[in-house]
From TrEMBL:
Protein name (Swiss-Prot/TrEMBL): S-adenosylhomocysteine deaminase
Originating organism: Paraburkholderia ginsengiterrae
Keyword Membrane annotated: no
Family (UniProt): Belongs to the metallo-dependent hydrolases superfamily. ATZ/TRZ family.
A Pfam cross-reference name: Amidohydro_1
Alphabetically ordered keywords of this record: Hydrolase
Domain Amidohydrolase-related stretches: 53-404
The keyword Membrane is annotated on this UniProt entry: no
Coiled-coil portions: none
An example molecular function term from Gene Ontology annotations: hydrolase activity, acting on carbon-nitrogen (but not peptide) bonds
Length: 466
């Protein structure tokens, strides 16, 4: 294909009168439109007025097998994984694992993500099921395998088995076009120092990433201080688990010392702004990370797979948490957040040689965006406008590895409506039987809803409500 959009978003910014040639799943050529037409006379140029071609977004932190419980987390206090996610995932059989993953992957594509990084599931099923679902949907997936070893019943033999399973996982998916293996320890306190070090070292040797959640919630930070006399990121450094291969999800509660550790070791971070607003204790100091040269991408944490709303949340959270108090009216401007949602995310996942920008030789993971809409007119700064004004409804097409996967929000080669019908039934059954514990039950929400008895005087109702 020879595509000639009105705008092409390159690493240095948007350009006009440029195009791209797509061949064998890659960007085969990127140049001015006239030059491409001259070089490829056998290709029929596809002119796309009013359209933008941009790289697909990178979700640097996701939980693909938690999609059945999205709204269950609303209004809940922090550390919901203990009361919602672990109980739910423990009830997923192979079919439910497949359905949950496929639903999450479809949501991600619809939101403009062409790559998702799955942090690993606590379900007992094989990671192969997750890989199969993402491959069927056609999204690129960093596939995490959890290597926790601090359960009460784990002995030395079982620890060795975890390590062997980790080696097999890295080998099983090496070289796969859309699946990239990864190892994970859920939180530092769930892994022994030996396992933290071993998993990180295995990933370093394999060119993969090692994932963990750290410094997300105050409760976890305090547990680490009490038990280890160290904060979680300090604990990871002590265990030898920091480094360029390591990706830390959240890092919202970080000290200057921990920021220096991240910078000096080359450790990457997933900045998850929506997770902070929905269930967090703080906002990661992403602006300071950028100033220090700390590598970071943007992630959804499985909250809401909408890349444009994630961009808006990333900038807004920095303004509210830091910019307003310092008089910083730009907070990095549009370019910073686009860069970290694209190239920064690819770098954090060790996929920067493969995806993240429109460059010759890289995978043709890209979006076709309709910019001929009222929200984008008049246009004065396209990068700022993509961060603050663009929305998911403008995504006409999603391509992964040069293949059209979604057209106007729906798959072109499989029945997504049938999936949704199957999901409705399956999710209702598993949520009903899972030992989920919500702090705010449905009954509580009903109880605090204001009631008005139209047969009684309004003053009497107010007195009763008080």
């Amino acid at each position: 294909m020879l595509l000639l959009p009105e705008y092409l978003l390159l690493a240095d910014g948007p350009v006009r009168e440029h195009g791209a040639v797509i061949a064998n799943g890659q960007f085969a050529d990127v140049d001015r439109a006239e030059a491409l037409i001259e070089r490829y006379p056998h290709l029929t140029p596809v002119r796309l007025p009013g359209k933008l071609i941009m790289p697909g977004f990178i979700d640097a932190h996701h939980h693909l097998t938690q999609s059945f419980g999205k709204a269950l987390a609303f209004g809940e206090p922090s550390e919901i994984y203990r009361r919602i996610w672990v109980p739910l995932e423990n009830c997923l059989d192979e079919n439910l694992l497949y359905l949950s993953t496929k639903l999450a992957a479809l949501e991600a594509l619809r939101g403009g993500f062409t790559t998702v990084c799955d942090a690993g599931t606590r379900a007992s099923g094989d990671a192969t099921t997750i890989a199969e679902a993402t491959q069927e949907v056609g999204i690129r997936c960093v596939l995490g395998l959890i290597c926790n070893d601090l359960a009460d019943d784990i002995d030395a033999r079982e620890r060795a088995a975890i390590v062997e399973r980790a080696r097999a996982h890295l080998a099983r998916w090496a070289g796969q076009p859309l699946v990239h293996p990864s190892l994970a320890v859920s939180v530092p306190e769930a892994g022994s120092d030996g396992m933290l070090q071993t998993a990180a070292a295995l990933c370093a040797d394999a060119g993969a990433i090692f994932q963990t959640h750290a410094n997300e919630h105050l409760a976890a930070v305090e547990r680490s201080i009490v038990r280890r006399k160290m904060r979680p990121i300090e604990h990871l450094h002590y265990a030898g688990a920091l480094g360029p291969q390591t990706l830390i999800a959240h890092a919202t509660l970080v000290t200057p010392t921990e920021l220096n550790l991240l910078r000096d070791t080359g450790t990457a971070v997933s900045y998850n702004p929506v997770a902070s607003s929905w269930k967090g204790n703080a906002v990661a100091p992403a602006m300071q990370m950028a100033a220090l040269g700390i590598r970071f991408g943007l992630g959804t944490d499985g909250t809401r797979s909408d890349a444009f709303r994630m961009l808006d949340a990333a900038e807004t959270a920095q303004r509210l948490a830091f910019g307003l108090t310092t008089g910083d009216s730009s907070c990095g401007a549009g370019e910073l957040w686009l860069d970290h949602a694209l190239r920064g995310g690819a770098d954090a996942l060790h996929l920067n040689a493969l995806t993240g920008d429109i460059t010759v030789g890289k995978a043709a993971d890209f979006l076709l965006i309709d910019i001929d809409v009222p929200e984008m007119r008049p246009s004065w700064n396209l990068q700022w406008e993509l961060v603050r004004l663009a929305n998911r409804s403008q995504i006409d097409a999603v391509f992964v590895a040069g293949r059209l996967r979604l057209w106007q929000g729906w798959p072109v080669d499989w029945d997504a409506r049938a999936l949704l019908r199957e999901v409705d039934e399956a999710a209702a059954a598993v949520v009903a039987c899972a030992p989920i514990q919500r702090v705010h039950s449905a009954a509580q929400f009903v109880a605090i809803t204001p009631r008005v008895d139209h047969a009684a005087p309004q003053s009497a109702n107010l007195a009763v409500d008080r």
